Amino acid sequence: MFVKSYKHNQENLQNLTQTAENVSFIIDFWSSRAKYEYLRITTTRVTANFEIKDVMLENKYIPSSHASRVITDEVYKYIEAWNLKYYIISISTNNESNMVVTFLLLNQKDEYDKIKHLLYTAHTFQLVIGKGLTPAEILVVLN
């Protein structure tokens, strides 16, 4: 039953992504409470009625290191599996060096050179604000 449901939903997602002229990817890692790292790939598209549609394509546990080559291989595999190579216009990632290099490696593959790389602005703000508040926390604790 579970396999049948998965295949049905996979076909529906395949149809949904194939009806889009352009899609954008969001690639990031997140940690479970047990500290396991997962690679999440979400696709976003805008419909003809200007509705934003997000679909999480993959959410996979990555036991090995988060080296750029490992991430690139995983992302490439999913792009090919979902037949999205000709539809992706951009990939958004955080500013971590492994993600930046992942994009550069992916961009070197055939027909992937026109994909734009967008960095999370919010992630940068979070880091800057976090670092900026660190001295204030120390002052508050001392007073």
Automatic annotation (TrEMBL):
Subcellular location: Nucleus
GO molecular function (one): zinc ion binding
Main localization (coarse): nucleus
Any one of the GO CC terms: nucleus
KW Zinc-finger (keyword) present: yes
InterPro entries registered for this protein in UniProt: RNaseH-like_sf, ZnF_BED_domain_contain
Alphabetical keyword list: Metal-binding, Nucleus, Zinc, Zinc-finger
Stored PANTHER family: ZINC FINGER BED DOMAIN-CONTAINING PROTEIN 39, ZINC FINGER BED DOMAIN-CONTAINING PROTEIN 4
Protein name: 1886_t:CDS:1
Taxonomic lineage from the root: Eukaryota, Fungi, Fungi incertae sedis, Mucoromycota, Glomeromycotina
